[in-house]
Amino acid sequence: MIFLMDLQMMLLDVIYFILRGSVRIVFRPRTKPIDGELVLITGSGGALGRLFALEFTKHGAEVVLWDIDANNNEETARLVREAGGKAYPYRVDVTNRVEVYRTADNVRTDLGRNVTMLVNNAGVVAGERLMDCPDELLERTMKVNCHALFWMAKAFVPQMKEQNHGHIITVASVLGLFSTACVEDYCASKFAAVGFHESLAHELLTEEFDGVKTTLVCPYIVDTGMFDGCKIRDEVALFLAPLEPRYCVEQAMNAILIDQPLVCIPRLTYLPVISRALLPWESNVVTYRFMGSDKCMYPFIESKRNKLTNGGPTLIAAN
Ligand SMILES: *[C@@H]1O[C@H](CO)[C@@H](O)[C@H](O)[C@H]1NC(C)=O
């Protein structure tokens, strides 16, 4: 009897959330105020991280900026201050867990307050064929895109739980939900990031820390130079061009400010996610072939190789 009542309640809830989700596509819910929040952004010296810093500043939050590149990070801090915000830059290698824990403690003592929003944005890609790629570069992709999420969570989630207040944002990629050829390191790390994020989100809900929100951001290729050269069929690219970084961050912010658990940017990329789940593998393969997304990374890897042989120092691109 109890079982049937639970079943009925569950089904009603399922329908309620489907309807709510549909309505929200058209009528955006009210955004939450984030002035007074302390937002930590990793990879804040990069293009996306910098834009995130400026967006959070615009909404009245203060930003703690973590990047391995002190110069780029200082520049982000300068831009935030120029925009009238408060920025606290730290030079951190997020792959070094000792450094992560120590700097987290430094942030707490320096600022005398807790980080309430965490934006795991730092990300890298090797940009070489698996068989040609130095092992260290493959490991680095896992360390930055996945392992760093463990250290960041251990450093900052306990206080969020204790206050039952906070927000964890993971910038993954649509390549954490479906994949393509020749970016094995990146896909492995982003699938890992998605798994990590969702498990943590489940944990928070199961333990009823419903004040600690989570948002998984899965953007398509963003035009930051990270995937320079990546190319799909022209006719398809008309609908699915590389994302303008500003557009990507604005869409991510919209999702964050309404506590949306998942956002794929642009919306069109929900289609391959659904088709991957529903259609036979071979059907997806022929779709990829038609769209030119099977070989989309070939020119990207080619352009990276040219950069390297031209003596460019760009071994690794970052968000
Ligand atoms: C930070 O979080 C800890 C753990 O909940 C709490 O004891 C402390 O008072 C918080 N600090 C501030 C300044 O809110």
From TrEMBL:
Its main location: membrane. It is found in: Membrane. It catalyses: all-trans-retinol + NADP(+) = all-trans-retinal + NADPH + H(+). The keyword Ribonucleoprotein does not apply. It comes from the Eukaryota. InterPro entries: NAD(P)-bd_dom_sf, Sc_DH/Rdtase_CS, SDR_fam. It holds the Pfam family adh_short. Catalyzes the reduction of all-trans-retinal to all-trans-retinol in the presence of NADPH. PANTHER family: PKSB, RETINOL DEHYDROGENASE 10-LIKE. This is Short-chain dehydrogenase/reductase 3.
